[in-house]
Design brief:
The protein is mainly alpha-helical. It contains eight helices and five strands, in the order αβαβαβαβααααβ. GO terms for molecular function: ATP binding; dephospho-CoA kinase activity.
């Protein structure tokens, strides 16, 4: 449940950096750094521990440790509370304290490593997937990227296109879900179709098995179109990206 867990460094690297820092601060102490596989770790089983350093926000956790130690027949630990350092440069949407979560958020938009060239992919255009739920800002970001010269593919528009009469998904969808999903003019009534599949995983899968491959094929055709136009970057705006 951490913010941006993908950007958290591996445990081995974090432990090595911590040891380097601690030994730099006070090399005369002996440091035993262990991974925590649960909220308590060795704090509730190690009889040699005497003190636990907590902050104001983790004091309750320290008190929970002492309750567990008493249950295990171990003496309570002295709880030494320290103040958290304030971050003078934090923004409105960041925590007031110095926080690794805030630091990871600041990495968003930063190129962490050069893109690796995949020999199976063409050099141009460079395709970027833009995804997120309703209201996450995809449309605004796609518009900005389009203004910067990117070729934008709206997967939602492709989704509408596959349903129109003559579209690649029209006949298979009607054959699967029946003529009752049609309007008087022969177009598919998306609300009626939605009511048929909503809450029914089997029917929903039947629909997506028809529609998603067709949308993917249309997206690939649009990428080729972008390449033919000489576009360097192509952005695929899609709420459900991989499928």
């Amino acid at each position: 449940d951490k913010v941006l867990p993908e950007l958290i460094e591996p445990y081995e690297l974090r432990a090595a950096k911590l040891r380097e820092f601690l030994e730099d601060v006070k090399p005369s102490l002996c440091y035993d750094i262990v991974p925590l596989a649960d909220p308590f770790g060795p704090s509730i089983t190690d009889p040699d521990l005497q003190c636990l350093v907590v902050s104001e926000e983790t004091r309750r956790g320290g008190e929970a440790v002492n309750r567990k130690r008493l249950e295990n027949g171990l003496p309570e630990l002295a709880l030494h509370e320290i103040k958290l350092m304030k971050d003078p440069d934090h923004s409105q949407n960041e925590e007031e304290k110095i926080s690794s979560s805030s630091l990871r958020q600041r990495l968003l938009g930063t190129l962490l490593q050069p893109p690796r060239q995949n020999p199976a992919l063409p050099l141009h255009p460079y395709v970027i997937g833009l995804t997120g739920g309703t209201g996450s800002g995809k449309t605004s970001i796609a518009k900005l990227l389009g203004q910067l010269g990117a070729f934008v593919i709206d997967a939602d528009k492709l989704g509408h296109a596959v349903y129109v009469p003559g579209g690649p998904a029209y006949e298979p969808v009607v054959a699967t879900f029946g003529a009752e999903i049609l309007n008087k003019d022969g177009t598919i009534n998306r609300k009626v179709l939605g009511a048929k599949v909503f809450g029914n995983q089997e029917r929903l899968k039947s629909l997506t098995d028809i529609v998603w491959p067709e949308i993917a094929q249309m997206a690939k055709e649009r990428v080729r179109e972008a390449g033919a136009q000489g576009k360097a970057v192509c952005v695929l705006d899609a709420a459900v990206l991989l499928e």
